[in-house]
Amino acid sequence: MASSQHPSSIADREPMLRVENLQTAFFTDKEVIRACDGVSFDIKPGETVGVVGESGSGKSVTARSIMGLIKSPGRILDGSIQFKGEELTTKSEKEYRQIRGGDIAMVFQDPLTSLNPVYSVGNQIKEALRLHQGLTGTEATKEAINLLEAVGIPDAGRRVREYPHEFSGGMRQRAVIAMALACDPELLICDEPTTALDVTIQAQILELLDELQEERDLAIMFITHDMGVIAEIADRVNVMYAGEIVESAPVVELFENPRHPYTRGLLRSIPGNNPDADRLVTIEGDVPTPNEPATYCRFAPRCPEAFDSCDKVHPVPVAVNDDSEDHAAACLLYPEDVSQSEAIDVHRNAATESEDEL
Ligand SMILES: Nc1ncnc2c1ncn2[C@@H]1O[C@H](COP(=O)(O)OP(=O)(O)OP(=O)(O)O)[C@@H](O)[C@H]1O
Ligand code: NI
Asked: What sequence ranges are listed for the domain ABC transporter (predicted)?
């Protein structure tokens, strides 16, 4: 799925999903957790957008916000989510049910959360086919077998009658993907679908997604904390930290020229990427809970390059330099082709403008 394998035309397409300034918060007894704090990005048809970041950075909340799955004490406070030009944040639960599993489907880390143990795998796929494509009877059975074959389940004609517990972990996740495909979605959101699987099976599932994307022109949002998986699957990458996208770039550009100190840290922590280290290098410290408005850089306490202003000015995503429209970083070191004080002003002014809007 690396961009080199794709027709260059993806870049010229209109976005299918447009997320703008998404703010999703959880109101707990103790604090307000700003799990998504001003998240903006696009996904184009046929494109795979990887979302990467440590645990607690807001990846799943971003996905659940798009799927209309944020439940109390959580709420979308502000921002817009547009799918093919339609605003999703104002949809009712009933309207959202049509969208979920219709135009947009989601695959979770644990396949058992999507499978019902008391129905055969085939019956669950057939139910999705009935709901979303109006297929019933032998027609539905035939299509269910086709889908199981399409996701690489051998002996599909027999296995269609089996129950989830009769499938291995990898086969279950394939079955869940088949169920997602039964809805013929245009956007597939995958939240760490391979994390629980061993590496060989993981590689097979990634390859499967790649093939399905090519056949069906699927747009994919792929969440992982694994930079290796990102390298394998993404066309574009959003790096998240404490509720914000701190860097966004095409995958090759991100790996060759990471700009945000957090991204650099993540890349150094890939085994084998740091020949000097005799152990896995990780970034010292933890992701802070984003429980207050961002009036500073949330990464500053862990950042090897932090300076005075990082505690006082909130960095917003800016083009890293004049030549690169497609590569943004939310860090006071950018844009890199102006003086440091000018760069800081860019961020300070952007922050004041957004305050004026509120
Ligand atoms: N139901 C909830 N109630 C309270 N806080 C929540 C809830 N769901 C998520 N959060 C908080 O929102 C923040 C973002 O969580 P999220 O699950 O999106 O992280 P993530 O990037 O997906 O992490 P992981 O890699 O562990 O899956 C965290 O601080 C988390 O504690
Ligand atoms: Ni998550």
From this structure: 17-267
ipTM above 0.90, yes or no: yes
Residue with tokens 């280290």, as numbered in its chain: 277
Pocket test for ligand 1, best of 26, 30, 62, 191 (most atoms within 8 A of CB): 26
Q: Is 52 near ligand 1, meaning CB less than 6 Å away?
A: no
Percent of the chain clearing pLDDT 70 (strictly above): 93
List the domain boundaries for the chain.
1-103+185-288, 108-184
pLDDT at 183: 86
Closest ligand 1 atom to 223 CA: 22
Q: Answer yes or no: is the C-beta of 354 below 6 A from any ligand 1 atom.
A: no
As given in the structure block, the two tokens for residue 69 are 């799955």
Rounded CA-CA distance 45/3 in Å is: 13
CA 199, chain centre distance (Å): 20
* Positions of the chain with pLDDT under 70: 1-8, 271-281, 354-358
Atom of ligand 1 nearest to the CA of 56: 19
Residue among 24, 39, 61 whose CB has most ligand 1 atoms within 8 A, to mutate:
61
Closest residue to atom 14 of ligand 1, CA basis: 58
Nearest residue to 37 (alpha-carbon basis) of 345, 279, 297, 302 = 297
pLDDT digits (tens, 9 = 90+) for 268-284: 877 666 665 555 567 88
What is the model's pLDDT at position 197? 82
Rg (CA), the chain: 21
DSSP 148-186: HHHTT-TTHHHHTTS-GGGS-HHHHHHHHHHHHHHT--S
**Spatial strand order in the sheet of 32-43:** 32-43, 17-27, 74-83, 86-87
Secondary structure E strands in 178-243: 187-191, 219-224, 236-241
Phi-psi category of residue 184: left, alpha or beta, with phi > 0 → left and psi -120 to 50 → alpha: left
Considering the domain 1-103+185-288 in this protein, what is its CATH number?
3.40.50.300
Strand pairing of 187-191 and 219-224? Answer: parallel
